[in-house]
Amino acid sequence: MNKSIAILGMGQFGSYIAEELSDNGADVLIADKNEEIINQYADKVSYAMTAELSDPKAIEAIGLSNMDVVVVAMGDSLESSIMCVMVAKEEGVPYVIAKASSERMGEILKKVGADEVIYAEKESARSNARKIMSSNFLEFFDLGDDLCVVSMRPLSRWVGKTLSELRLRNKYKINVVAVKKNKSANADINPEDPIEADSQLLIITQKNNLDKLNK
User: Fold this and answer.
1) I want to staple 84 with a disulfide (CB 3.0 to 4.6 A). Which of 72, 99, 167, 178 is the partner?
2) Which CATH code, of 3.40.50.10420, 3.30.70.2190, 3.40.50.720, 3.40.50.300, is assigned to 4-127?
3) Contacting residues for 159 by C-beta, under 8 A, at least 6 apart
4) Contact predicate 148/173, CB 8 Å
5) What is the pLDDT of residues 160-203, one digit of tens each?
């Protein structure tokens, strides 16, 4: 089942995130007060709405209660960001990500309910899109030439099994290069050790193989 993700604010960061998520198969809803921008991206996403994002009634009308994730992308507007975060959490959205232009702004957004704060523009939009698409992805590092390194939680179906049993290289075309547990990373991996739920896996793979991990 595809994730339903709302992007509130279609500036540079919001537009890059929206396109990347849509390209990766998410059901994306976008909202912005600028009708011209909404019309520009309407054909690239599942839903597009014009809304005044500083008005709580307008935000409520978007229907955020159906979203798995909400990304509040107006890093230059503290008032609108606060309002969007608060309404999203009141609507019961499980995970709200907010963009901030400063550490102080980030602290405020966390206090009003943001689950995660990011400080980003175009260069990290793809990285954040990958993280949003998979709740298992913790960090994404683009190596260029279609290669990437990802820090991730093990999928639930991997827990309790060994790397030898899972044959991840054959099934997903990924290479596990280190396992992290209790803040300690180990690159000397025993393929017969069972994977634990609270561990983190550091993998290297081609970017197009990541989609298989979201299915």
Assistant:
1) 72
2) 3.40.50.720
3) 194, 195, 196, 197
4) no
5) 999 999 999 888 888 888 888 877 778 788 899 999 998 989 88
